[in-house]
Structure to design on (640 residues):
């Protein structure tokens, strides 16, 4: 019954990357203060109004970029901070993105153990039981997960990765300066000297080994910051089959020549994320008025696609 | 203007511990399948109905135990999995617990960096800006935080700890078997051999150093599992001023003689958590009918208080 088997998350992701000719994922990290006046003016100044503005802003952004990128990455913290109404805005954003053919990778960095990790997984990438049926709640395609609790914290997510053809991206080496505090610590592991993030990389390989899709990539990916290009090169070798979710491009200082280390020789393997530089492009590009924020975002995405594709071409890694 | 200064989280916690003569914190981790029929039968079988049942169950539990313990620890994963309605149930539970004089420590294990960590902190322990005022959203007294991202992931929470007299508990050594995967790794740190969790312990000291209250405890606590008593003893010495939030008692195997290592010589320093053994006590205690779940929970809490207080007395650590 091969025809009934659903395509794995990694296959779905790569197919969409090739279709859109883009390795970019757009973060949707709404900050009310930075929203255009044209959006803010149309909603009341209340928690509910703020969340309506966020939803409207996101949908307009998605309309402007859905044909240019394979995926979006809403950061749930920016919604969750508004409680019930924020979660409503988040779920509406996810639904709208998926309706437009975008893959939705939730940046949630959730982590816990046993039945608690299962509860997170059920809610975000799996299903919850209601009476005699199963319901999808957040219904994202993939989510980010923190590894500090070890295997007990990852295995419950893996069940849903397999059952529902979903993905997880495990924090390995994050883009922030103080990622060195713990992730770069010198460790002794399996008789060898290493950095802690290399140990996590090895675990990511192990956790993902039963989820390899037809393009050769696992549905258990890794978060690898653009801001540490030398570490990225090492990690690319350590996790040849893991898709990298790469934050830190643009606003945090990562350049196209930095993120090139995150790709494999097949020209795949990395999804480069940018949020602020796209979401609020209208604030820095004088060609666009406040009300043209969506057009400005579109231009910024086209620019970023070009930068990354040019860099891949220069390195003979562009495969379209 | 000393009189205007609010009492620190650690002082508020310890005052409540002494008042209640209890070092126990009750986890509220609702699992619909385990709820009593008397609660389930009164609500419709829908997401909304499930969340109404959870809220009702929690409020009845709180009514039964609020005079016996200083604090409750709702685990947000069990609410979040139901999306919008789940968050509503969570917030109602928090409000009800606080109304009854309980300290609410949210088990959220959130983590991120910069403005994203700030968004989590604003939503859970701080405030969000709405028009010309600041609104509290989750409004818990303290929350658990994951340290894998280093200082950048902790400092934004520290601001709210200081501004709003809140607390955070940082995962140091968790109670699950695979906590050894990363937390127990042998590392080289500041020229010395150590385990990773010892490095995190040192960071917890540093992060909490400006938040010491009048009882001598910091408002930056540590999560230290009851299931590794030898590690707990080491960690108690490494973090003399951190309050320990101790999961793993009861269902996970931790005993009173294990958790004694988490206390300081002043008879304070540890908050021992139990969830399932209290929430669903009625399922294992034949004296109670389904409809008497709250009475059963009360008995279970009294039993746990007695066990821990007796152990403290035995070790000459009981200070009431």
């Amino acid at each position: 019954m091969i025809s009934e088997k659903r395509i794995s998350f990694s296959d779905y992701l790569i197919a969409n990357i090739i279709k859109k000719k883009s390795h970019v994922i757009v973060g949707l990290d709404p900050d009310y203060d930075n929203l255009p006046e044209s959006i803010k003016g149309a909603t009341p100044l209340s928690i509910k109004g703020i969340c309506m503005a966020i939803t409207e802003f996101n949908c307009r952004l998605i309309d402007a970029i859905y044909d240019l990128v394979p995926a979006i990455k809403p950061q749930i913290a920016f919604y969750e901070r508004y409680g019930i109404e924020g979660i409503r805005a988040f779920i509406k954003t996810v639904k709208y993105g998926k309706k437009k053919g975008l893959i939705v990778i939730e940046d949630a960095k959730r982590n816990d153990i046993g039945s608690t990790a299962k509860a997170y997984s059920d809610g975000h990438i799996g299903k919850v039981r209601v009476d005699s049926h199963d319901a999808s709640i957040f219904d994202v395609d993939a989510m980010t997960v923190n590894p500090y609790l070890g295997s007990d914290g990852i295995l419950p997510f893996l069940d849903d990765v397999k059952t529902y053809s979903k993905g997880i991206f495990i924090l390995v080496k994050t883009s922030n300066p103080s990622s060195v505090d713990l992730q770069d610590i010198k460790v002794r592991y399996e008789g060898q000297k290493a950095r802690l993030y290399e140990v996590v990389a090895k675990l990511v390989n192990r956790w993902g080994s039963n989820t390899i899709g037809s393009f050769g990539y696992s549905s258990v990916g890794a978060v690898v910051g653009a801001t540490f290009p030398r570490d990225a090169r090492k990690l690319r070798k350590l996790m040849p089959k893991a898709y990298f979710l790469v934050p830190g491009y643009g606003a945090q200082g990562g350049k196209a020549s930095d993120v090139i280390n995150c790709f494999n020789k097949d020209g795949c393997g990395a999804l480069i994320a940018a949020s602020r530089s796209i979401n609020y492009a209208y604030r820095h590009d004088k060609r666009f008025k406040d009300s043209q924020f969506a057009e400005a975002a579109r231009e910024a995405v086209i620019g970023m696609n070009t930068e990354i594709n040019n860099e891949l071409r220069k390195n003979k890694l562009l495969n379209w």
